[in-house]
C-alpha cells in the first residue's frame, strides 16, 4: 500500500455477466493516485475503464484485490459504510452530467452536502454558491437544470463533485458530451481545482488532447493496464 | 429536515398530476369512510338514545323462584334445557327493590311501571295499545318522556288522573289531539274515557305506534291487577355497564332483569351489520386508493432510476433511497388523511342536511349522523396502513436498484 496515495488499488479482478456471457472485465489492475495528480485512463471501448472507475469509486465490489482510500482498506465493509466513505471522500463526474432535474443548480450542488450533514443550511448555501462561482455559474444559482446548456450542466456536475471537498475525483468521460471549447474549459477548471485542493483526479477519456494534458496516462486493453506514462514521456498516440 | 424527506418533497411536488391522483384517492377514501360511519352509527345511536330514553337502560320485572326437579332420572324425551325457574308476572315489594337499587352508584333513578295491553278507541278508530301505568314524577326523572312531548303539556297529565299521554303514531291512527277523548277497554269489557293531555314522540316506531301512559293507580284499576308494578325501569349513569348490573340485580332481587343491549339485541345487530358492511365497502375504496398509490410510486421509481443511481454515487445509502419513497407515501397519507378528514366533516354535515322522511323503525326528517372522533382516527389509520403497504414495495425496489447499470450508460 502506498501511504502517500489518496487512493490505491491492487490486483483488482472483476467478472461481469453470468454463465456463457461472463466476461473477465478486469485482470489484476493496480494503481496509485497521489495528491495533486491527474490520471487519464485510455483504451478502446469495452476494455474495462468504467468498470475500474466504479470499483475505485466503491460503487461496485471487486471479485479479488483491494481498494484503499487515505490508507484505509475498503474491503469487507458494509454497503452503508461504503456509501458513507463515498460521500466523504469521492466526487463523481459523469459524461451525461447526471444532474437531478427537479432541483436548481445550487440545490444540486447541495445534495451531497445534505447527506454529509456536516454544515448548517446557510453554510451549505454559501458553499454551493462559491463552488458555482468557481465554475463561473454564480449568476445561475437558482436556474433549473433543464434551463442550462450542456457545458453549464457539466460545470454544475464538477461543482457538485467538489461539494464535500473530496480527496478523489473520478470522472467518466467528463468532456465526452461537450464541444471542443467547452471540453477544454471543463478540463482546465478541473485541473486547477485538483492542483489547488491537493486532490487526485482519475478520468476516463477518449479525448487524446485531454489525456496528453494529464500527469499520468494509463493505457488499458482487455481488462489490463498495459502501460502507464508520465506526461511527456509517451511517444505514440493511441 | 432529513435529506430523504427533502428529496421526497421535491419529487412529489414536481409530479403534480401523479400527486393529485394519489391524494384524491386517499382524500375521498377517508372522507367517505367517515361519512358512512357517521350515518350508520348515527342512526344506531339515535335508536339507542331513543329506546333508552323511553324504556330505560335496565328493566327489572317478573319475580322468579327456582324450579326444583324431582330426584329421579329424567327420561330421554325430557328437554334438558327446560327453564329451571318459575316466573310470576308481578314485582314483589317494588319500593324495597327501588330503595336498595338506588344505593348502586350507576343508578341515577328508577320508576315503577304497571304494564298491560288494552284496546283503545277514538271516534271510529280502534287500536291495540301498550299501556304504561306510571308515577309521573318518577317517570319524568327516569326517562326522556318530558323531552319527547311534541304537543300538549306534561303538567296537564300530572294534575289529571283521568288523562293520558299517547304516542305520536298512535295519535295519528286514532286521529286525536291534546284535549280530545280516547277510550280504553278494560278486561271487564268497560270503556274508560281519558282526555289526551299530550302527545309523545320517542323516535322509535314500535313505541310511538302503541304506547299510552296513564297514572299507575288508574292503570291498576283499569287492568284489574292486584299489584301496582309489573316492572321497574332504570336510568343509569353509564348505560354501557347495564349488562353487568342487570346480572347482579337478577341474582340480588330474584327478578328477571334485562339490559337495553339484551332487549334490543336483534335491532342492534342489524345496525352493527350495516356498519361493518359499510366499513368493509369503504375500506375497499381506501385499499383501491392504496393500489393507485402503489402504481404511482412504482412509476415514479421507474422514472427516477437515473436520480437513484446519482444519489447512490453521491453516497446516499439504500435506506436513504427507500426512505425517499416511503416519505412520499407518508406525505400523501398525511396530507390526504388531513384533507379527507376535513372533507369528511363537510360531507357529514351535508348529509345531515339532506331531508329524508323516515317513518318506520325510526322517526326522522333528515339523515341522522353522529360526530365521533374515533371515525376520523380509524379512517386515518386505515389510510396510513394502506399507503404504507403501497409504498413499501416500490421503496424496496428503489433501494435495490443497482446504480452501476444506469451510470454505465453505453460504456463498459
Biggest sheet of chain B, open or closed, and with what strands and sense? 6 strands, mixed, barrel
| Count of β-strands of chain A | 10
Q: What share of the residues of chain A lie within helices?
A: 25-40%
For the largest interface in this structure, which chains are involved and how many residues does each contribute? A-B, 44 and 27 residues
Low-confidence sequence ranges of chain B? none
The CATH architecture classification of the domain at 7-101 and 165-230 in chain A is 3-Layer(aba) Sandwich
- What is the gyration radius of chain A calculated from CA atoms? 18 Å
Give the helix level of chain B as a range of percent.
55-70%
What does this structure look like?
The complex is a heterodimer of chains A (238) and B (412). Chain A has 238 residues and is of the alpha/beta class. Chain A has a domain of 161 residues: Rossmann fold (3-Layer(aba) Sandwich). In chain A, the strands form two sheets. In chain A, strands 6-7-8-3-9-10 form a six-stranded mixed sheet, with helices on both faces. Chain A has a four-stranded antiparallel sheet with strand order 2-1-4-5, with helices on one face. The longest helix of chain A is centred in the last third of the chain and has 18 residues. Chain A is globular. In chain B, strand 7 and strand 8 form a beta hairpin. In chain B, helix 1 packs across helix 14, helix 2 runs antiparallel to helix 12 and helix 14 runs antiparallel to helix 15. Chain B is elongated and about 105 Å long. The chains are: A alpha/beta (238), B alpha+beta (412). At the A-B interface, helix 1, helix 2 and helix 3 of A face helix 1, helix 13, helix 14 and helix 16 of B.
A few lines on this structure:
Chain A has seven helices and ten strands.
Describe the SSE topology.
The complex is a heterodimer of chains A (238) and B (412).
Chain A: E1 7-16, E2 23-33, E3 37-42, H1 49-56, E4 64-69, E5 72-73, H2 79-89, E6 90-93, H3 105-116, H4 121-134, H5 150-161, E7 168-172, H6 180-197, E8 200-204, H7 208-212, E9 216-221, E10 224-230
Chain B: H1 3-13, H2 16-55, E1 58-66, E2 85-88, H3 94-101, E3 107-122, E4 125-134, H4 136-142, H5 145-148, E5 149-152, H6 154-158, E6 163-167, H7 168-174, E7 181-185, E8 191-200, H8 205-208, E9 211-215, H9 216-223, E10 231-236, H10 242-253, E11 255-259, H11 260-263, H12 265-303, H13 305-313, H14 318-353, E12 355-359, E13 363-366, H15 373-400, H16 403-408
Parallel strand pairs in B: 4-9, 6-8
Antiparallel strand pairs in B: 1-2, 1-10, 1-11, 3-4, 3-7, 3-10, 5-8, 6-9, 7-8, 12-13
